[in-house]
Amino acid sequence: MNDVTMPTDQPMADVRSSQDEKKEEKKDEKSAQQADAALTPAGNWKCTATGGPEPLEFTFDVSMTEGNAVKANFASKNASGELTGTWEPDTKSLKMSGMTGESNIELEATIDGDSIHGTAVVHAKEGDGGEQKFEINGTRTSAKQDGEGDAKAAAAKDGAKAPAKKEFVIDLDGFEARAVQLPAAAGSFGSIGFSDNNQLLYGRDGSVRIMDLSSKTPSEAAGAPGTRFSVSADGKKLLLGGGGARGGGASIAPASAGATPKPIVTSPMLVEVHPRHERQQILVDAWRVMRDYFYDPGMHGVDWNGIRVKYEAMLPAAVTREDLNFLISEMISELNVGHAYLQGQGDIENAPTRTVGMLGVDFAMAMNEDGTPAKAWKLAKFATGASFDNEARSPLAAQGLGVSEGDYLLAVNGVAVDPSTDPWAPFVGLAGKSTVLTVSKKPVLDKDAKDVVVTPIASEDNLHYRAWVEAKRKRVEELSGGKVGYIYVPNTGVDGQTELVRQFYGQRLKQALLIDDRWNGGGQIPTRFIELLNRPVTNFWARRDARNQTWPPDGHRGPMAMLINGLAGSGGDMFPWLFEHNKLGDVIGTRTWGGLVGISGNPGLMDGGSISVPTFGFYEVDGTWGVEGHGIDPTIEVIDDPSKMKDGGDPQLEKAVEVLLKQIESNGYHPTPKPKYPNRSGMGLPDSDK
User: pTM for the complete prediction?
Assistant: First the structure.
C-alpha cells in the first residue's frame, strides 16, 4: 500500500469528496459541450441521397464559422466539393450551396438532434441531365467540440479564446552541421519531392529515384522514367514531362519503385474561353505583377491603384488581344521607367510564314546596251566581312563557283527572272535548299550563260553586320595609318562578350584602341568587359631570343576612347559609365539611352503573354540615383551630320581617331627598357635588384 501524506487540517473523507466533485464537474462540462454541439449542425455526418438511379452514400463534414455561417465538405464515390451557407437555430434549418465540377448544388435540411433530413437540387450544365432533385437523410457520427475543426468559430460561440497554436521553431544555430549526406550516386539531378509515405523522390540520370529515409541503410530504388516531375497533393502520383512518357508527351505514374507511366491523352483537350473575362484577368494580372515585383514599392510615386481603375474602365473597348496589349503597354508606361516592356504578345492570330532564300548580295537594275531594262538582275555587291572570317561570306563567294560582282542573274531553278518584280520573289521557300542559278557576264540569256548551284541562307543579318564592322575597322586603319585598333561591341550579352574578346586579341597591340558602343543593345552588366580593357602593366619579362614581354600579356597599354549614341542602352549605358568611372579614356558621340534598371524574371500571363518588370535600379556611391532616364553624357559631343555621312562618312568615328592620334603623341605607351643584365658574381645583391 502506498503512503499518502495528507494535510493535517483536512480529513481524508473531505479530500475524497472534493476529488469526486471535480470529476463530476468535468463530466457535467463535457456533457454540456456535447449538448451545445448537438444544437448546431457542426460535426461529421453520414448521409444517403435517394432519387437517382440508385441510392448514393456520402459523408458530410460541417463546421461553424463566424456567427451562424456554415461551411461543409462533402465527398462520395462520384463527386466532392465545398458548400457554404447559414444555420437558423430557431427553426433548426440549414441552407447551403456550392459547386462540384461544373454543377451547382443547393441544399435545404432540418437538424433534429443527431438526425438530418432534407432535399438537394443539382443544377448540371446543359447536356448533362439538367436539374436533379434528391432526398437527403443521415445521422451525425461525431460532433465537433471546441478546439476541433474550426476552433476559432467554436471559441467565438461561447466567448472563449481560441486555443494557442503550437509554435514551430527552427534552430538555426549549427543548422548546416546537422545536414546528412544521402547515399545518392553522382549524376545529373532533376526534380525533388516526397511521396505519401515520406519517401524521398528525385530525378537522376533519366529516371525517378526513390529513397526510404526511415531505413537505417537507405538506398536508391528506380521508379518511372524521367527526371522532371510534379507530385500530386496526396503524394501517391507523379506527373511526368515529355521525358517520362514513351510517346514523348506528359504521363502519370505511381510514386513507387518500378512504376510504369501511363500517357495522358491530350487530344482533344478543349477548354471554353470567354475572351472578355480573360482580358480582364490578364490586365489585372499584369497590373499585379508590376505592383509586386517593381524595384520601388512606392511605384515611382504613381497612384498604382488609381491606374488600375483607369485602365479597367477602357476594357470594354478592347476588341482583340492586340487592343489589350496596347492597354497593357500604356498602363505600365505610366511608371516612366526603362525595361518595362510588353514582351510576349499572348494568344494572338498568326498567319503562316515562309522563308526567303538570301544570297548576301545587293541587287541593281540590269540595263541593255540600248538603255532599256534587261530581263536580269545585276549582282552589284557581295556582303563580305574580314577575309579570315568564313562566317561572313556571301554564298556567291564560295570557292570555285566562278561568280563575281557585276555578273547578272538570269534565271532561278530554270525560271527566267522578271525584273518587274522583287529580286527576292523567285527565292521564296528556298532558304537552306540547293538552288540552281543561271548567271552570265552579260544581261542576256545566251550560250555564254552558265548554271551554278548555291544554298541560299535564311538571313543576311550576320553577313551585313560583319561587313559593317570590317568596313569600320578598315576606315580606322586608313585614318590612323594602322596606329589605332577598332572593336565593335553589339551588346553586353554572351555574343557581345564573344565579339569583344574575338576582336580584342587581334587589336590589343595597336598604339591606341577605339571601342564602339553605338547601338549597343545591352544584356548583362559588363564588369568583365571593363576588366579586359583595364589591365595595367605589373612587370616585364626579359627574353634573350625574342622581344621583351609585357605582363599581363592579354592587355592593351595605350590610349583608349569609346563611341556612344542615343541608341546604346541598358548594358550599353553601363559600359561607357564604367569606362568613364575607371578613367580609361574619352567617351565621344551623343548621350546614351538611359536605361539602368534591370530585369531578372517575373511571372507571365495566362495565355502565354508577358511583361518585363524592372526589379533592381542603379544608384551611385554618393547615395543619389543616376543614369536611368538620362543616360551617359559624352566627354566630347559629336552629332552625326547626315550631310557628312554620305558615302560611308562617320563624323563620330573620325573625331575619335583624331583624338587618339593626338594622345598617342602626347601620352603614348612606351614600355620600360630592359635594364643592364645583373652582375651576380660574389655574395649579395645590389639594393636596386632586391
Answer: 0.68
